[in-house]
UniProtKB/TrEMBL annotation:
This is Type 11 methyltransferase. Gene3D superfamilies: Vaccinia Virus protein VP39 (3.40.50.150). The lineage of its organism: Archaea, Methanobacteriati, Methanobacteriota, Stenosarchaea group, Halobacteria. Residues 63-154 form the Methyltransferase type domain. SUPFAM superfamilies: S-adenosyl-L-methionine-dependent methyltransferases (SSF53335). The keyword Ribonucleoprotein does not apply.
Length: 239
């Protein structure tokens, strides 16, 4: 039986000191322990080159999408108006408990339902959740919605995985695709004997991301790769 918001419950339990079992990602017989503390609870400062690059593209009002437990939002709200969203009510509650001033439950794939036209100067999405768009068409639809809620000349920084990188096959749950610049990831989470829904991610190379921006009101301005090479952050600009 698939359990709703198993992911949010595991992270909420971790925050409360009540987690007694690991959150496990499963891909067939392959498993890995999800590193909750490392991924979500580290303090964010502006000292690293990586963070300085991200900050150089952002301004307020800022929308932080898929904000997790709000570590980035806590950092940015000291600089400008920041709205942090998660689809999980448990994660929204955790953000508020941690001091995020404007944490909102919202679906990043239905942004015009939750926000006003031209509301934000910048948007940020860390953690490759945008890959849940599922297809080139889904990515175009997401970018089009993003254009609706952002101001002219707005900017965005979004996480992706590059399936054309030579080490992309190391990604947990990776599935190859013969289509140029595209691939998949597929896995689900397990926690305390419960099973979460299967997550299907579509991976886009920078070239395919650039293709997807055509007609959406965005252009790809820059990318910044992480140390492993296949993970990259894309800086987009409204046109």
């Amino acid at each position: 039986m698939v359990t709703a918001d198993l992911f949010g419950r595991a992270i909420r339990d971790h925050y409360l000191g009540e987690r007694n079992e690991p959150l496990v990602d499963r891909n067939g017989s392959a498993t890995r322990v999800h590193p909750i503390e490392e991924f979500y609870f580290g303090a964010v400062t502006g000292e690293s080159d990586k963070q300085q690059w991200v900050d150089s593209w952002l301004d307020g009002p800022l929308l932080d999408m898929g904000a997790g437990v709000g570590s980035e939002a806590l950092y940015w709200q000291e600089q400008y108006e920041t709205v942090a969203i998660e689809i999980s009510n448990l994660l929204v509650k955790t953000m508020r408990d941690r001091g995020v001033e404007n944490a909102v439950q919202a679906d990043m794939f239905s942004l015009p339902d939750s926000f006003e036209r031209n509301q934000f100067a910048s948007v940020h999405a860390k953690g490759t959740q945008v890959e849940l768009a599922g297809s080139m068409q889904g990515l175009r639809r997401f970018l089009g919605d993003l254009a609706v809620i952002t101001k002219p000349n707005a900017t965005a920084v979004i996480d992706f995985h590059d399936p054309e990188h030579e080490d992309a096959g190391e990604l947990f749950g990776y599935r190859d695709d013969p289509t140029r610049g595209l691939a998949y990831r597929l896995f689900h989470c397990e926690y305390e004997g419960a099973v979460g829904k299967t997550l299907l991610f579509r991976l886009f190379s920078p070239a395919r991301l650039r293709d997807a921006t055509i007609g959406t009101g965005w252009e790809l301005s820059d990318i910044r790769r992480s140390n492993n090479g296949y993970h990259y952050r894309a800086a987009l600009t409204r046109v």
